[in-house]
């Protein structure tokens, strides 16, 4: 968003879940934009099919009511209608499948990343490792990210979503997330980034992220992992590249 | 990769240091566990042949440190020290 536009139309993005929210959170990655667009594309067909089927149902119930139409029709076969109602749904399915597969495979595409960040799920917190800058096997930039309990929240902080240590990443940079777990299944998910990746012990699931704008993005563990599953949120803070470099430098010192 | 990268006193980074293990077409799957394990073994193979501080070996060291979780590396290093690591090197 250019400075001119934000001055004219101040914008507050929706990057966290809201009470009674029905729609999507605002997209911050091309992937999430693609997901939202696909959803809208499919809804076009969905609404048309819904209206058509409802119309057929109501029409049949109305016209063929036993009082209005005491002698039932004896039609048992119609080749033309069979062909139409086979071909037509196939075409609709194709129109849904093409953009759907295009999106699915573009999600698997891994662009050569600039940064690798590891998210390791634990019962009940996430550990993040930034090991690109290590010069030995000793982890130099590793931290745990715990939820801030309700009693410790400050004004404006989000309940059950805020963490003590956020994942700081640069915006407009290709990131590789490596997601794994040290105990049970977890899932690292951030709706605004269009990411939901299971954390499986023994597997290193890779997913790539390209965040388009700076901001703070909230997500939650999305695979039932036990009693405190709801209390291990994820917060991603996207900053400019320069700020990221100085953040890492500070952390390494 | 600069020569002073291994010096322990060097702490801060610059924008030039922002690099990581590239996408490897031998490991196209979502699961990168083999990529990590391969890089770890390749480093030790390289270290056995050329010595730990060789430029090529440091590349593999960077890759496996970027890809492998810390507790995996720790476990493998322990196994190597005990002589129970299943790899050849």
TrEMBL record, chain A:
One of its GO terms (cellular component) is mitochondrial inner membrane. Component of the cytochrome c oxidase, the last enzyme in the mitochondrial electron transport chain which drives oxidative phosphorylation. The respiratory chain contains 3 multisubunit complexes succinate dehydrogenase (complex II, CII), ubiquinol-cytochrome c oxidoreductase (cytochrome b-c1 complex, complex III, CIII) and cytochrome c oxidase (complex IV, CIV), that cooperate to transfer electrons derived from NADH and succinate to molecular oxygen, creating an electrochemical gradient over the inner membrane that drives transmembrane transport and the ATP synthase. It is a multi-pass membrane protein. Belongs to the cytochrome c oxidase subunit 2 family. Residues 16-111 form the Cytochrome oxidase subunit II transmembrane region profile domain. Its main location: mitochondrion. InterPro entries: CcO_II (IPR045187), CcO_II-like_C (IPR002429), CcO_II_C (IPR034210), Copper_CuA (IPR001505), Cupredoxin (IPR008972), Cyt_c_oxidase_su2 (IPR014222), Cyt_c_oxidase_su2_TM_dom (IPR011759), Cyt_c_oxidase_su2_TM_sf (IPR036257). This is Cytochrome c oxidase subunit 2. Residues 112-250 form the Cytochrome oxidase subunit II copper A binding domain. CDD domains: CcO_II_C (cd13912). Pfam families: COX2 (PF00116), COX2_TM (PF02790). It is found in: Mitochondrion inner membrane; Mitochondrion membrane. Its cofactor is Cu cation. It comes from the Eukaryota. GO terms for biological process: ATP synthesis coupled electron transport.
TrEMBL record, chain B:
It comes from the Eukaryota. Gene3D superfamilies: Cytochrome c oxidase, subunit VIb. InterPro entries: COX6B-like, CX6/COA6-like_sf, Cyt_c_oxidase_su6B. GO terms for cellular component: mitochondrion; respiratory chain complex IV. Keywords: Disulfide bond, Mitochondrion. The keyword Mitochondrion applies. It is found in: Mitochondrion. GO terms for biological process: proton transmembrane transport. Transmembrane segments: none annotated. CDD domains: Cyt_c_Oxidase_VIb (cd00926). This is Cytochrome c oxidase subunit. The lineage of its organism: Eukaryota, Viridiplantae, Streptophyta, Embryophyta, Bryophyta.
């Amino acid at each position: 968003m250019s400075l001119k536009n934000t001055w004219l139309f101040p914008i507050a993005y929706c990057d966290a879940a809201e009470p009674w929210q029905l729609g999507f959170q605002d997209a911050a990655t091309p992937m999430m934009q693609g997901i939202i667009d696909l959803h809208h594309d499919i809804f076009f067909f969905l609404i048309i099919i819904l209206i058509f089927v409802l119309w057929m149902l109501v029409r049949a119930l109305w016209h063929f009511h036993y009082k209005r139409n005491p002698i039932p029709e004896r039609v048992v076969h119609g080749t033309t209608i069979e062909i139409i109602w086979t071909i037509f749904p196939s075409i609709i399915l194709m129109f849904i499948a093409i953009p759907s597969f295009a999106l699915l495979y573009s999600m698997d595409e891994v662009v050569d990343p600039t940064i690798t960040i590891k998210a390791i799920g634990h019962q009940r917190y996430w550990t993040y490792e930034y090991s690109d800058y290590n010069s030995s096997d000793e982890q130099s930039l590793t931290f745990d990210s715990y939820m801030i309990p309700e009693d410790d929240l400050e004004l404006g902080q989000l309940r059950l979503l805020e963490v003590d240590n956020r994942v700081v990443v640069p915006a407009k940079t290709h990131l590789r997330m490596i997601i794994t777990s040290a105990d049970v299944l977890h899932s690292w998910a951030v709706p605004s980034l269009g990411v939901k990746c299971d954390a499986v012990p023994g597997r290193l699931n890779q997913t790539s992220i390209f965040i388009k704008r700076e901001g703070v993005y909230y997500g939650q563990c999305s695979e039932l992992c036990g009693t405190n599953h709801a209390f291990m949120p994820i917060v991603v803070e996207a900053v400019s590249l320069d700020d990221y470099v100085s953040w890492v430098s500070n952390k390494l010192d | 990769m600069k020569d002073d990268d291994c010096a322990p006193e060097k702490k801060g980074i610059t924008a030039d240091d922002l690099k990581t293990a590239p996408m490897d077409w031998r490991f196209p799957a979502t699961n990168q566990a083999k990529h990590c394990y391969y890089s770890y073994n390749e480093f030790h193979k390289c270290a056995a042949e050329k010595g730990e501080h060789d430029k090529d070996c440091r590349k593999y060291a960077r890759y496996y440190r970027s890809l492998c979780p810390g507790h995996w590396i720790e476990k493998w290093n322990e196994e190597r020290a005990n002589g129970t690591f299943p790899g050849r090197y």
